[in-house]
Amino acid sequence: MTNSQYKRRENLTEPVPVQWILAILAILFLGLFLFLPLAAVFSQALAKGFGPYFEALGNPDALAAIRLTLITAAVSVPLNLVFGLAAAWAITKFDFRGKNLLVTMIDLPFSVSPVISGLIFVLIFGLQGWMGPWLNEHSFKIVFAVPGIILATIFVTFPFVARELIPLMEAQGREEEEAALVLGASGLQTFFRVTLPGIREGLVYGVILCNARAMGEFGAVSVVSGHIRGLTNTLPLHVEILYNEYDFTAAFAVASLLAMLALATLAVKSLTQWKRARRPSIEFEEALVR
Amino acid sequence: MKASGQKTSGRNQGRSPHIDGKISQLIKSFTLTVLIGLSIMLSPLISASSDTVPLLNVSYDPTRELYQDYNKAFAGYWEAKTHRIVEPRQSHGGSGKQARSVIDGLEADVVTLALAYDIDEIQEKGLIQPGWQKRLPNNSAPYTSTIIFLVRKGNPKEIKDWKDLVKPGVSVITPNPKTSGGARWNYLAAWGYALKENGGDESKAREFVGQLFKNVPVLDSGARGSTTTFVQRGMGDVLLAWENEAYLAINELGKDKFEVVTPSMSILAEPTVAVVDKYVDKHGTREIAEAYLSYLYSDEGQRIVARHYYRPVSKDAATGFKLPELKLFTIEEQFGGWQKAHKTHFVDGGTFDQIYSK
Fold this sequence. Notes:
The structure holds two protein chains of two kinds. Chain A is 82% helix and 0% strand. Chain A is an all-alpha fold. At the A-B interface, helix 4, helix 11 and helix 13 of A face helix 1, strand 2 and helix 9 of B.
């Protein structure tokens, strides 16, 4: 019995040389396009030792860029979390007219070039735009100031949470919620006790992706930023400025911050995925034991 | 029915300590992040004093280092004179793009751009009073510059003058005149040289510039991008560059790798400066903005300008930083001014498009 099982498994897999070739190809590809650039960033950043590295990170303009990046993410990620949840909830649990249109609209920021995403805000809120003269009269600053940067970031990152949740919630179906409601749970109870536990990992993953993009966005933010040093430069913009000033060590030092963010994102992502993958397998084993 | 409902909720509560534990962990880490974030955000608010006057200078690409230096000097001068602290801020980018940003609402107190044409554009939208160019000496150009060549050490292709750029096998790096102010100067310098050499024959000039652009393998969008292409990526035999960019690149990246070639003649570039009337009146910074620009013409200002390889307008300030002499022609005498040059050469379907699409 065990023998035949073993044989069948062997027949199902590829021959050993093919396995090796595929693995080597994948590793080479990863090495060339991922590890090599990553190593280059860190080696360039530390080319002159740790002194200049921390000096570059402690520069007032760099600190201002870090601060602005954190503010931008701190505002746009929670808003997108709420929006993404609401949108995914509405789309997967209810039927209404124009649902398909809403799904398409959520994807819009993915299909629009980031530069255009930035330009639309200049066209709306810029001095020559629709609302510009009114805003100027009342001394509101949107574009070329922090609000514009946050708006552009929200626009670019808003599909992430919803996109992550919609397939998950669709797969779950509505039966559990309907059961909860029938059993007398209130709407909020149903959400916190039934819906949220099921989508928690997907939600975390969506937030992580959203956060990574919010901190790393270049194109859209570049258009609305105005590039004022120490005021409206985010980390990616600061990297570009330093690079253009021939200050390569500092540029790569700041870039390494962003790279570390990406690595942390990757770690958290694989952690949640690992958890997600482990749970069903335990249930499966339990079923086998029974 | 009711009993079964309670049973279900009982089971849910059985699960909840596990979930609550995770949620409280999440809340804890979130609060920590927010606290760290807030402390970083608030730190400058605590340290910044209320008497500092911010002053925004919107400039073009190659002046980054110049204004970093100049801002320090001006802040010192202003504090000594008025006992008030000014904090000049810089924004850099392609000249045309920067003008566009000011038009769209980037509230610059002063603009220091690559060409008068870009400031004219801001004036046309009513942000700057007409006649701005007459408000400061020398047509509001506190420094001038020109276009020269940067070649690899030892000048292996023996590039001495403009005519050597059209030789076959010479690879020329210059940015795109559609997007870069510096590239327009490059283009017009080449055109002007060909006109002078051929006794004003426009068709010969056109042929010459067409030949030159056949030798250009890549058009970057800005002057800094081209410098990086030539210097960092090692492309091309010769870089057409702002004089100050060329010297800066040599200083920053090694005298042993490149050398400057000054051609027999070139174009006189006059980067202009102006106070943006609408915004200084809004901010109440007119006095300080005007002082900021006129200090550029002072001895100290001119020395800083010369130190960054611009050509100062006051001749005695240049001592110690002498740049090579060459014949310089102006855009007025060769092309009848920027508006006209722009219409002929750089609009869609203009001479550049005709040459480059061939």
